[in-house]
Here is the input.
Amino acid sequence: MVNYYPVYLKLDGKKCLVVGGGKVAERKVRSLLESGARVFVVSPELTDWLEEAALKGTITVIRRNYTTTDLENAFLVIGATDVPVINRRVARDCHDRNILVNIVDSPADCNFIVPAVFRQGSLSISISTDGKSPMLARRIREKLETEFGPEYHEFLELMSEVREHIINKIPDEEKRRDIFKKLVYSDILQLLKDGQREKVKERISYVLGNDWTQS
Here is the structure.
């Protein structure tokens, strides 16, 4: 059995091609846009949402069937048509050119798969079943939604500020690690969940010392 290598891709400004214009393609386009990709869609027909996105200039649409030339300068490709022979051609063309490709509902044609993703601000948790049961991955993602609330987003925003302070003020790596551990394993998350932000400031000041002030 081949195990997938989990990785997060930086798609900001990258050309990503979606072949297909239906509801599945629309979902793929939405997620790519959330990652900052430059999205190109090849399809003679589009959903209403894709039509609107094209009119706004949010995506670039090529209104015809797929051709190999559409792959030029593409960093990542998703095949999402309802015609298997077209999807297989997209996969073959991408494999020949070492382009990242995902074919919806056909793991054997993919060189990467898209996991179910739960997001809470900067917190991102991916769930994969190696393509064996996307529905189970979805169920796990829904369970995570009940366990990781908005306090995790707030905590990470706070830690971004605190981390910069620690790195600038404390050169010793072991001391830094100890401080990060104290903060993460403290009751700050629960305090944020309870809305007790003054106590959060007290906890951080206790760990970092009086020279830290939240902006």
